[in-house]
Amino acid sequence: RVSEANLADAARTCNEIRSLMGEVFGLQGAVPSGIPGTGVFDLCLAGTAQSKADFAADIRRLLARAKAEHREARTPRIVVAGGLNCERHVVAEIERAGAGVVALDTCIGLRHYEECVEEAPDQIAALARRYLTRRTCARMEGLEQRIQSMKQLADETKADGVVYCSLKFCDPCLYDAPAISRVFREQGVPFLWLEDDYGASSLGQTRTRLEAFLELIEQG
Questions:
Q1: Is 141 exposed, middle or buried (0-12, 13-18, 19+ CB in 10 A)?
Q2: What DSSP letter does each residue of 101-164 carry, written as one string?
Q3: How far apart are CA 176 and CA 157, in angstroms?
Q4: Alpha carbon of 74 to those of 23, 103, 180: distances in Å?
Q5: Residue 77: in which H helix or E strand, if any?
Q6: pLDDT confidence band for 109 (50 / 70 / 90)
């Protein structure tokens, strides 16, 4: 039954997960050590299907392991951004080539967990404020906000480059990509736009383009 009390309980549960994921994203972007991008990606993907209790337990286990281990810094440091991304091969290929993924600014990644829901007498209004004022994805207005947030994320994580992913024929991401690319290139930040059809046929091309992109960054 949907009631103010039940909504408040659900908001608290989800806020706890958002706070835990904030720790995960912080460690992922930490210099010099952090959590591998593939580990964060797998966690985000699991969060789309697990119960909230199981997901929170998985986050805590990952955080405990990450805080007990030391990882060598990987360069270049890459931000992976874009639309919904349910395949790990882009992140895996970046890491296979020796670089580090320091942020996942995607629909199931960082953007999904930003901003908590305030506890308020009108819980439905509080939920609405969170969902209507948070950072948007490409299917909604707010391109300038998305660009500024992406630039800020790249600065905060000391990123050496940005890989922007979109699903092939996804028109909203197609509209955003040229503007985002232009801004980063004007700032001198290497930018690669990848279109993906989630099929094995594109893996070879994706690998080649990522390797060339990373070599370009390393050559400076």
A1: exposed
A2: EEEEESTTTHHHH-SPPPP-SSHHHHHHHHHHHSPP-TTSS-HHHHHHHHHHHHHHTT-SEEEE
A3: 22
A4: 20, 13, 25
A5: strand 77-82
A6: very high
Determine phi and psi for 67, rounding to 5 degrees: -75, -20
The single residue listed with the structure tokens 């639309």 is 83
CA-atom Rg of the chain in angstroms: 18
Q: d(Cα 45, Cα 86) in Å, to the nearest integer?
A: 7
Q: Residue 198 pLDDT > 70, yes or no?
A: no
User: What interhelical angle do 143-156 and 171-186 show, nearest 10?
Assistant: 50
Q: Are 162 and 154 in contact (CB under 8 A)?
A: yes
Does the reported pTM lie above 0.85? yes
Residue-level pLDDT at 74: 74
